[in-house]
Automatic annotation (TrEMBL):
One of its GO terms (molecular function) is metal ion binding. Coiled coil: none annotated. This is VOC domain-containing protein. The keyword Metal-binding applies. It comes from Geodia barretti. Residues 4-129 form the VOC domain. The keyword Oxidoreductase does not apply. Keywords: Metal-binding. GO terms for biological process: L-methylmalonyl-CoA metabolic process.
Amino acid sequence: MQYHINHVHVRAQDPHASAAWYEKHFNAKKLWAREIMPGTVTVSMEVGGPVRLNISSKPAGSSDERSVAELNRLGLEHFGFDVEDLESELERLESGGIRVVLPLTQTPTGSRLAYIEGPDDVLIELVQPLRQ
């Protein structure tokens, strides 16, 4: 059987505000928003590919403990977006007040990457693939 990633799921204090951030900075498109699990709201978004981004509110009674958007943590560390021009993307995002966690870095294979902090302490990698 072939498998593919269906979605990436993050928890948010305010899923609608987080969804608006992805709409503003990554041209995400809200597909729907509804209660999936009792007492929570999930916003599902399309972000230019087959993998959806789902953003859900925190269930009642769950921990308020937050992680930190940093490299090398255990569990789901980050997810990434392909970009065509990493320098201009970083400039655009930084001018919008977004924290760069790891500045533009050239990999040994020739691709370029950087990490930014998204809403809800989510670490996001921006990847400019090597052009063949």
